[in-house]
What does this fold into?
Amino acid sequence: MLILGIETSCDETGAAVFDTAAQKILSHALYSQQRHELYGGVVPEIGSRSQLEKIDVIIQQALADAHVTLEQIDAFAVTNRPGLVGSLLVGVCFAKGMAWALNKKIIGIDHLEGHVFSTFLKNDGTVNQELEFPFIALSASGGHTIVHMVQGFGQLSMIGQTLDDAAGEAFDKVAKMLGFGYPGGATIEKLAQQVGFHDFFKYPRGKKNPDQISFSFSGLKTAVLYDLIKKGAYDLTTGPITEKLTETLQQQVASSLLVCIGDIFCDALERTLKKYPAVKSVAFTGGVACNKYLRARLEAMCAKNGRRFFAAPPMFCTDNGAMIAFVGGYKAEQGLFDDYTLDVVKG
Ligand code: KG4
Ligand code: ZN
It folds into this structure.
């Protein structure tokens, strides 16, 4: 079967073709909105309008790159939850329209399931056969920080999550405090690298509840903020104070933040591995998983605990159509189709 995957849950417009017989992503096209930098975050109204402008060309590009026609597609897999309702509606309505007009199948996909299974995709679009069940997956982005237990294709349950902010949000907000634009994760990584990933300021790691797999980043963000105020580099009303916010201070804050988040991730996942001895591997995905330092930290933690480590290729860590097409592929093989009443799930 040929599956066309469509992703429009936030500010990325993605489409991809997955061939279930070849077990390969034949093509993937993506449009990433850059305009939000002006506003310091994602603006839902702008997001959904941009989805509407781009979805047609992105789907056409995915089909052309895969050398297939729309008529050859057997099923349309589309993200219908969770996400921004206006953005989700664009993908769902588009997919429903095509499926209905061509009398083809449709499958609604959970965006988070897409992220978890993106860890099976290799750079060349083939499927990694080495990732064995059961494994745990950490999905960390600007919107979520979740640990799933994964027992099989489509068999996943959430076993931990953030109690407040997402990890990506902590990177984005601290980057803003340091006077940088949105999104800030890659900037923080670059600054931290310049000073060798040292822990200069030893920010609080938060309280640990040994019975719970959870994360908390809100206190960390506040700790950074008050430390900057104490150093005279930030004012609550006017923002960053450039004379005091030297390049060295920016690098040291970024580095301390990154090391702290590395510690928090490693600690939570190490405790999870101890709790679930049958787990063979750890998988890492979501926009934050683009971070090479965090990948290396988690890989070292896995090696220490005798587990294997898998991370999605950076292009499949951030929102994309390929992960949706791949999940659509195994759902189609399992016969799990929806009907044309498929709708966006709110909330
Ligand atoms: O998955 P994604 O593209 O979108 C959602 O939020 O769903 O993730 C974006 C997030 C942003 O918070 C961004 O700062 C973060 O991923 N990010 C990074 C890096 N690249 C992107 N965080 C840390 N290090 C990076 N290299
Ligand atoms: Zn996402």
